[in-house]
């Protein structure tokens, strides 16, 4: 279970609240002070997000070692250009010819995780079937359970239903900027879990990620948008000229990485409580480059137009958070300066 971050302004206090539902992804608050390890270790990559107290463990559940297929549900109103940004990110995970640092290089850290037979997470991640729900079949305000009903509608549709593949299929529900999801903005920007057979008819690993462009870009599209209550902080320029969608990309990467390593919430996670696991992307939330931690994203790259990114895809550039490397016990990314 991803921890939820709440905030207070004077003084800045970070409260960690354990929840008892889906595994969720949060975005970094830009006003949080660096933690003690930032001050001690400075810019050394070896210590970004690292801790002798982090014990990532395998709990014997399944992981996705077969070729991974991402089936996408586009809920609400989506522009073709927005879909292309997200599709190309997913396709870039398995691309072998992307310029360094690459999305495929980022995925190599995820591949280090294995199941009980020693088989690694699959290198292959590809786009599967897609389903458009442009008429908001379940309304513009979704609960956590109604999200599963949206997935049910997609896999049981009379025309072109999504295939059901519990062993290697991931189901990615993306909601447009005019859709509110339970706890969106106040507590979550995305989450993953698995569907209940009583609702969907199958146990399917899935993730939801929302476009925050209208509701809370300063929270879920940070650092391409900043909160209004932090005066003087300027947003970074997004690499694909769409702050809401570019903000979604890192959350999508976060959730796909955790779905691959912990699809049924009983495989790879840290902590003693299986109801509230801390997963491989949770540990590196807010770290995008060397020196990252606390309120600092780390050292990033800028293109000729001044847009900020840290990874190359097939044809585009993206900003994607790092993930936990359990072999070396710290967060890693392909854009690390000392790689």
- Contiguous low-pLDDT stretches (5 residues minimum) are 1-21, 24-48
Q: In this structure, how is the largest beta sheet organized? A: 6 strands, mixed
Helix count equals: 6
Q: Number of folding domains?
A: 1
Please give the radius of gyration in angstroms: 18 Å
- Shape verdict: globular
Tell me the series of helices and strands, N- to C-terminal.
EEEHEEHHEEHEEEEHHEEEEEEE
What is the helix content? 10-25%
Distance between the termini: 31 Å
Strand content: 15-25%
Walk across the major sheet and give the strand order. Answer: 3-10-11-8-5-6
Secondary structure: number of strands: 18
Structural class: alpha/beta
Mean pLDDT: 86
List keywords for this structure.
339 residues; alpha/beta; 6-stranded mixed β-sheet; two-stranded antiparallel ribbon; 18 strands
Give structural notes.
It is found in: Secreted, Extracellular space, Apoplast. Belongs to the EXORDIUM family. Keywords: Apoplast, Secreted, Signal. This is Protein EXORDIUM-like 3. One of its GO terms (cellular component) is apoplast. With 339 residues, this protein is of the alpha/beta class. It has one domain. Helix content is 19%, strand content 21%. The chain contains six helices and 18 strands. The strands form seven sheets. Strands 3-10-11-8-5-6 form a six-stranded mixed beta sheet, sandwiched between helices. A hairpin with a 5-residue loop joins β13 and β14. α2 packs parallel to α6. The radius of gyration is 18 Å and the shape is globular. The N terminus is likely disordered.
């Amino acid at each position: 279970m991803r921890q939820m971050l709440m905030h207070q302004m004077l003084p800045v206090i970070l409260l960690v609240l354990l929840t008892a539902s889906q595994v969720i992804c949060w975005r970094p608050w830009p006003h949080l002070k660096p933690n003690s390890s930032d001050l001690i270790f400075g810019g050394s990559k070896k210590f970004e997000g690292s801790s002798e107290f982090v014990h990532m463990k395998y709990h014997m559940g399944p992981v996705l070692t077969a070729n991974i297929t991402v089936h996408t549900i586009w809920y609400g109103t989506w522009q073709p250009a927005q879909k292309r940004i997200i599709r190309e990110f997913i396709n870039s995970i398995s691309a072998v010819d992307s310029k360094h640092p690459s999305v495929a290089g980022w995925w190599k850290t995820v591949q280090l995780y294995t199941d009980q037979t020693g088989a690694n997470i699959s290198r292959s991640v590809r786009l599967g079937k897609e389903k458009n729900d442009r008429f908001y079949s379940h309304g513009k305000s979704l609960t956590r359970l109604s999200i599963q009903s949206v997935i049910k509608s997609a896999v049981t549709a009379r025309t072109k239903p999504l295939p059901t593949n519990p062993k290697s299929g991931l189901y990615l529900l993306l909601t447009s900027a005019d859709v509110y999801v339970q706890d969106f903005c106040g507590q979550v920007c995305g989450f993953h879990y698995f569907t209940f057979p009583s609702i969907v008819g199958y146990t399917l690993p899935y993730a939801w990620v929302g476009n925050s462009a209208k509701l809370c870009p300063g929270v879920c599209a940070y650092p391409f948008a900043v909160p209004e209550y932090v005066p003087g902080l300027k947003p970074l320029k997004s690499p694909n000229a769409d702050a809401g969608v570019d903000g979604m990309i890192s959350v999508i990467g976060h959730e796909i990485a955790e779905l691959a390593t912990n699809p049924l919430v009983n495989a790879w996670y840290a902590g003693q409580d299986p109801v509230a696991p801390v997963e491989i992307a949770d540990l590196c939330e807010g770290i995008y480059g060397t020196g990252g931690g606390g309120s600092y994203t780390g050292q990033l790259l800028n293109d000729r137009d001044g847009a900020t990114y840290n990874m190359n895809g097939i044809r585009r550039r993206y900003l994607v958070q790092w993930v936990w490397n359990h072999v070396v016990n710290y967060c890693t990314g392909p854009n690390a300066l000392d790689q």
